[in-house]
Structures are given as C-alpha cells and as structure tokens.
Amino acid sequence: MRRKISILLAVLLVISSVYTTPVLAAQNEQEGMGNPEGEGLEQKVPQERKFSKKQKRKLKEIEAASETSGLETAEILEEIEEDEELYEYSLKNTLEKYYNEPEIYGEQLENIKENVECDVAEEVIAEYEAALEERSQADELNYNTENIIVVFEPETDESYIESVAEEQFGELEETNITEDIDVTGLTEKKVEQIQNVSQIEEDTVAVVDISLGQTVEQAVEEYSQYENVKYAEPDYLLSASGLTVDTYSNQQWHLNHIKMKEAWYALETSAMSETWIAVIDSGIQVSHPDLKNVYIKNKSVDVTKSGYPKLSDLTQPYAGDHGTLVSGAVAAEANNGKGIAGVATGGDPSAFRLMAIKAVRPETPNYDMYTSDLVNGIYYAVDNGADVINISYGWSDYSQIQQDAVNYAYNANVPIVASAGNKNCSAKNYPAAYKNVISVAATDQNNKRVVKSYWGSNYGDFVDIAAPGVDIKTTAIKSTYEMSEGTSLAAPIVTGVIAIMKSITFWEE
Q1: Which residues contact 417 (CB under 8 A, 6 or more apart)?
Q2: Under CATH, which architecture does the 36-46+142-237 domain have?
Q3: Is the peptide bond before 431 cis (omega within 30 degrees of 0)?
Q4: Tell me: the pLDDT tens digits for 260-297?
Q5: Which residues are catalytically annotated?
Q6: Does pLDDT of 37 surpass 70?
Q7: Phi-psi region of 283 (alpha: psi -120 to 50; beta: other; left: phi over 0)
C-alpha cells in the first residue's frame, strides 16, 4: 500500500513541479455590491398589507383605469396623494405592469410620467428609470440585472422568503430547500455518505426576481435589511476557462507526462470504492460513446431549470462543447476499445462515475454561468453523493455566497478543484481563488506556464498546483474527439488524481 500511495503522491508532485512561475503578492478580496451580514443596516420584518374597504375600492379603480388610460390613472392617484402608503403601493403596482410590458402600455406610461407631480412619484419613477437603464446594459455587465441572491438563516421558511420578496415587489424564483434525496439502488457506503451530509447545517439560499424599479445595488441593500437575512449579493457571471483547437489526435501526451499510467498499474490490485466525480459545467453529450456508460443518469441534472430535470443530450455546437471536453479529460470510459481514457477511469473504469451538472445558460452573452446556478450545482453535488467536484469556470469578482457553498463542500469532505483562468495575469479567478478550493494553472510539454499570443495561464499566490493544459485530447460533441486547451483542461487532470486518491482505503485512514 505504501508504494501505491507514494506513486499517487508522486503524480501530484510531478503535476505540481511544472509550476515554476514566481509567486506574486496577494490581492485583496473584492467586495463588489454584496452586503455580508447586512452590515450597518437596521433589521425589519415583512408587514402584511392591510387596506380598508375604501382603500380597496380605490385600488380597483386604479387597476381598471391603468389598462386603458394613464391620464385617468394619474388623476385617481392624485386623489389619494395624502394616503402615502396607498399612493406609493398603487403607483409601484402600476409601474410594475407598465415597465414589464412597454409595448402594450407605452402610452399609458408616458401619461403617468407627465401627469404625476408629487415628490414621492418623481422619486419612484426615477428609480424605475435607473433600473431600466441598468437592464438595457445587461450584456455589458458581469451580473444578472433581473435577480439577486439572498442568503437567509438555516431553516428559514419559504413562506417568509416569499413575503419578503412580495413586499419588495419581487418574486421568489427558487431556493435550495430540497426534498429527501433519492438513494434507491445506491451502495450502503454512498447512502451513509449522503445521510452524513444531510446533518450539516445549511444556509437557506434564495434567488429572487427583483422589482423593475430596483437596480441590483438597490435591491441588495433593501433585502439585506430584513430579519433572518445574513446577506445578499448580485448574481455574478462566470466564464469558461477553456479553448478548443485543432482536430482529432491519437496522443494523450499528458498521461505519460504526469506518470499517470504508472499510477494505474500500481493500483491494479487495489480495492477501490465507487467514487463520483461531479463536473459543474455546460452539460455533456450523454450519448457520447466514451461517456454514455460513465455518467450517472439519475444524478446528472440541469440546475438552471426548475425541478432540476435529468440532463438531456447536448449535440449542438454551443457551450455544451465545454462540459463534454472537461468531462472526457477526467472520466472518459477506459478499456472499451475506443476513444480515450480519462485520468480517473484509466485505472479501474468501473470504480468511477460522472455526475454531469449543467449550470450554464445558453441565453447569456458568452454561454456563461450565473453564481446562483453554480451555487445550486455545488449544493446539489454534495447533497447527492459527489466525492470530488470540478469547476472549469471563473470570474474576477469575489462572492461570499460562492465561498459559503465551497465551505459547505469542504465541511462535507468533498474537495473542489477549479481552473485558475486564462488571462495571462496574476489576478485572482474565482472560485479557484477561494479558501478551500484547489486552484489549477496550465503548463505545456516543456513544464512551462502556458503563454500564447491569444491566451496564457493565470499565475500568482492563489494557485495551488499546475497540470498540462495544452493539446489535451478529449471527448467532444457529435461523438467526436478534439484537441483542447486552457486551465479548463488542466483542472480535470488534477480532479482525476484526487478522485483516485479518494477511492482507495488510505484516504479514510
């Protein structure tokens, strides 16, 4: 056993030794627009709106008038101007409708703007205009302009969260409150693992669609003021850390380079426990000949959709490519007489399974991943039995919600491996730069940090290890194979080694 352990550790040392870039000074975490712990804000609780019969009649009048005449709506609003609570509620309720469907209510909206004159109305309309301006720039911003993430105390009731959102003229989109995990057909050890994870205290994380009258910054501040809210922050975007080049190749130079085959041979007689590798990415081509027998059908899901439906086949040339490339590098089926071998599966293909988790949204400008989807993916992976997680996405913004999700995995003994980024600089790339994440840079055949005219591996003191990240032959959509590069491909090589380490006895000893 000592020899087997030594060879695995040697693999990591070989991977690590190729990273020779000087360490640079640490950078401070970016605070962004988040408001951890609702710092400096007086807490409040949502209040049920109670209107008298007379007030309700006015509300009905305004609702009816708003459908056809902005001018008449403004006149009725003027009648209730002295009733500040009713006035503000009625105005916002009307503006939510108008700004949501400007193609239908454009004329009414202009009438409202021209005919309401009190200070409250001017302030409210200014807020809606500022939010509209922000949404118009959505493609240029690195966060979702339509929702935010709000972290509540553990076991916060969903009805309470809904009441908070309703008071803010928003709507609860989803939470991480889950039903019991399906353990049908799982091994006794895997069931025990899932049960142990369920005992870990978990914050209640909610994604909230914000009011059309709130900028993201304003919404973060408003929601942070409520009782039971730990903090709120924008739903940041993360980008892929991989690049696809060239065509099919018969060489997997990286396996020889890090002495992976020697490690496989040394482990031939070892008893390996079933180990699940979660890849949180853009999904995979589930029918690919080198992935179809490896991925776990009832645990591979799309966390961007309500109810987390099972993963469907991705064969179209969009970001689905990325997840297929990354997954093949770590878990392509070995010894099946075709294609390639993943780093983990080359030793004992039967011991390693792939939990493919789709967290990328094709509708984003660059097929990016929102923080909310990444966090949902991490919680899902940990709660459903993942043994190691690979994340080959990243961004420059620090997120407390992401760090909390990472800590949840760490406390559950589930390592997270992430790509260091492809910007050829020392800037931190998250989630790789978080505490309790293994950050992976990319090197070439000469053991040098990858630096090309169009990309280079990030470096600096947040990087923990480096691995081959150029000319990596791996699986691709349409049942093909491609050469790919980037720290996105370096990360799963490290993930594969860690998966093997977790599968053998000494990890627990």
Answers
A1: 388, 389, 390, 391, 437, 438, 440, 491, 492, 494, 495, 498
A2: 2-Layer Sandwich (3.30)
A3: yes
A4: 888 888 777 667 789 999 999 999 999 999 999 999 99
A5: 281, 322, 488
A6: no
A7: left
Q: For tokens 């800590």, name the residue.
A: 407
Taking only Cα atoms into account, the Rg of the chain, rounded to an integer number of angstroms, comes to 26
pTM tops 0.90? no
Q: Quote the tokens at residue 211.
A: 């009011």
16: exposed, middle or buried (Cβ count in 10 Å: 0-12, 13-18, 19+): middle
DSSP secondary structure letter of residue 350: G
Helix (H) or strand (E) holding 356: strand 352-358
443 pairs with which residues across the strands? 449, 468
> Regarding predicted confidence, which is higher, 190 or 40?
190
- pLDDT above 50 for 319: no
CB-based burial label for 453 (10 Å; 0-12, 13-18, 19+): exposed
Length of the chain: 509
Q: Which of 478, 484, 458 is nearest to 322 (CA)?
A: 484
What one-character DSSP code corresponds to residue 180?
P
The Cα 373–Cα 356 span in angstroms is: 14
Q: For residue 38, what are the CA distances in angstroms to 167, 199, 505? A: 18, 27, 44
| Residue 465 phi, psi (nearest 5) | -160, 165
Distance CA 496, CA 12 (A): 11
For 241-261+274-504, CATH number out of 3.40.640.10, 3.40.50.720, 3.40.1180.10, 3.40.50.200 equals 3.40.50.200
CA–CA separation, 25 and 165 (whole Å): 42
Grouping H, G, I as helix, E, B as strand and the rest as coil, residue 232 is strand
Q: pLDDT tens for residues 367-390?
A: 889 999 999 999 999 999 999 999
Task: Please state the separation of Cα 461 from the chain's center in Å.
Answer: 24
Grouping H, G, I as helix, E, B as strand and the rest as coil, residue 374 is helix
Nearest to 232 by CA among 206, 214, 211: 206
- Domain ranges within the chain, ordered by starting residue: 36-46+142-237, 53-136, 241-261+274-504
H/E stretch holding 351 reads: none
Read off the tokens for 461: 């003191």
- SS3 at position 442: strand
